[in-house]
Amino acid sequence: MSTKHLEKRWWHDAVVYQIYPRSFNDSNGDGIGDIPGIIEKLDYIQELGANVIWLSPVYKSPMDDNGYDISDYRSIAPEFGTMTDMEKLLYEADLRGIKIVMDLVVNHTSDQHPWFIESKSSLDNPKRDWYIWKDAKQGGSEPNNWESFFEPKAWTFDEPSNQYYLHIFSHKQPDLNWANPEVREAVYDMMHFWLKKGLGGFRMDVINMIGKPSDFPDATIFDSGVAGWEHWANNLLCHQYLREMHDKVLKHYDVLTVGETPFTNTLDGRFYSHPDRNEISMIFQFEHVSIDREEHNAVKKDFDLVQYKEIMSRWQEDLYQKGWNSVYWSNHDQPRAVSRYGCDSGPNRIISAKMLATVLHMMSGTPYIYQGEELGMTNKHFSHIDEFNDLMAKFHYQKMINKGVSEQTAIDFLNDFSRDHARVPMHWDGSDNGGFTTGKPWLPLNPNYTDINASQALLDHDSVYHYYRQLAELRKGEEYGEIIVYGKHTLLDPQDKDVYAYLRSFGEKTLLIVANFSDQIQKRHYSGQLNYHVLGNLPDKVTDLSRLTLLPYQAFIAEITL
Ligand code: GLC
Ligand code: CA
Predict the structure, then answer these.
(1) Which of 273, 382, 425, 553 would be a feasible disulfide site paired with 352, CB 3.0-4.6 Å?
(2) How far apart are the CA of 68 and the centre of ligand 1, in A?
(3) Structure pTM?
(4) pLDDT digit string, tens, across residues 257-313
(5) What is the DSSP string of 466-515?
(6) Residues 144-190: pLDDT tens digits?
(7) pLDDT, position 516
């Protein structure tokens, strides 16, 4: 049996901070965040304790999906800066011990990418086969019944060449044909181009969708997610391409790779991340963000902590020494964590934001912090569909209206789940536009920036920011680093619907993590002797596990002896 899984890798104890460049910090007053703006804030990220930045796309793009539609993989979007700025960012980050992970968006390109323009230009163009073109079915309909995430159908008809092309996302994001070896070589070349500049790795956008079965069969599953996923998600082709990518590119660099992979279970998690399979370091799974909604569908469900705990602990246990987890509460596609799982008003905002951080950062795996999460930023309130920017919000709205849902109900759904909650600009201080820009922000800010902002948080030792900093310190520290990163995970009281409690153990050491997810006092007891109260989100230290009175949203970490 191999022991390779025990080999330590630098990204095992990493803490990743995600930046959505458009909304992070604007250095030149045009209302759009940019790379020089990021450089200005590197100290802020370093002090937080993050040592990796995942940068959402900064490549040249028509920005139909805010950069996830790339028209040139080797240049920087002018609104974000220049290649020199990007190189300076790498250099300045390196000085602070921070690695930069870029987004790799290669399931699709923009329809403005020269590859697609050529491909579209004629049936016999050498790049015709770089994308997925198909004849209509008898009668002229789409080649199959697959759906798109952003539009009703995954196929768009091209009149001049009399064929359809495939797009799992918008029609401005045509899917690349990974079955063509020239496409794969072009992607690998581009990856070398960036890695040679000293990149710390890649976050791979919807990487589990790159394998398309050559017979393009009809979908049969219409009740969960976007129809077609049964054929294009996590298939053998995808794993084969990833192993080839590893062999031709990744094995030559010591990098972090994280695949964005909806529709995965823990077995898929092991397939992608077991080190002996030579694919990628870890994946983002979606099970836990699909509890209170149908992921990528406009359907709300009730949040159930019992289910949440079952999912998280299953991932912790099933990948233990057989792969690697990534753990996250939010990102640029999700609503704000404190609004979704905690309480986003009054004093409980800060307490519950810290509670959520405690639960996540004491888990095994690599934690990801989404910009503003460390301030406890909240969802913004939208009143009208015109206030949204995101194309998915508009699509979901239309879908709901078409189903006969009222306008208000549709807006209510978006107020819970729109991706724009995470995409409104970052709050730096209490001045106009939160110090994000001196101009007109591309998307209006959440007006609560006057109370919730970075300059306030830095000054206040009890802020969410400083709590995140302490959690990152624990993960990197002598005392608890090993147990937090490599310890075994055991869920306690799985049926408890208000309190999330689990153990971490490594050698002789045991940590108990307890978090009250409710706004009520909860009385609980846990076995074991409390040796040391490591950290908590309330001033009082916990002393006796046999008689605990947990205040609303209280959380703590204790070293115990069982
Ligand atoms: C991923 C990205 C999302 C984007 C989509 C298409 O899900 O995270 O923002 O819209 O892929 O590239
Ligand atoms: Ca700018």
Answers:
(1) 553
(2) 6
(3) 0.98
(4) 999 999 999 999 999 999 999 999 999 999 999 999 976 677 889 999 999 999 999
(5) HHHHHHHHHHHSTTTHHHHHH-EEEEE-TT-SSEEEEEEEETTEEEEEEE
(6) 999 999 999 999 999 999 999 999 999 999 999 999 999 999 999 99
(7) 98
State the residue for tokens 């001049």.
160
Between the CA of 488 and the centroid of ligand 1 the distance, in Å, is 33
445 has pLDDT over 60: yes
Query: Closest ligand to 328 CA?
Result: 1
260 carries an active-site annotation: yes
Segments in 274-406 forming alpha helices (H): 305-318, 337-341, 348-361, 391-402
More confident residue, 7 or 181: 181
Spatial neighbors of 424 by CB under 8 A, at least 6 apart, are 23, 380, 443, 444, 445, 446
Nearest bound ligand to the CA of residue 442: 2
Q: Is the pLDDT of residue 5 over 90?
A: no
pLDDT per residue over 502-516, tens digit each?
A: 999 999 999 999 999
Of 34, 69, 103, 260, which residue is the catalytic one? 260
Please pick, among 64, 69, 205, 420, the residue that the annotation labels catalytic. Answer: 205
What's at 433, amino acid-wise?
N
The CA distance from 150 to 422, in Å, is: 18
Is the CB of residue 205 below 6 angstroms from any atom belonging to ligand 1? Answer: yes
Q: Which residues contact 206 (CB under 8 A, 6 or more apart)?
A: 107, 168, 260, 261, 262
**Is residue 546 within 8 Å of 516, Cβ to Cβ?**
no
DSSP characters over 112-169 = TSHHHHHHHH-TT-TTGGGB-EEPPPTTS--SS----SSSS-SEEEETTTTEEEE-SS
CA-closest residue to ligand 1 atom 12 = 68
* Cα–Cα distance, 558 to 547 (Å, whole number): 15
229 alpha carbon – ligand 1 mean position (Å): 15
- Cα distance between residue 379 and residue 70, in whole Å: 28
Instruction: Determine the residue of 333, 368, 421 to mutate for testing ligand 1's pocket, defined as the one with the most ligand atoms within 8 A of the Cβ atom.
Output: 333
- The CA distance from 177 to 145, in Å, is 19
Q: What is the pLDDT of residue 2?
A: 44
- Rounded to 5 degrees, φ, ψ at 119 are -55, -40
SS3 559: strand
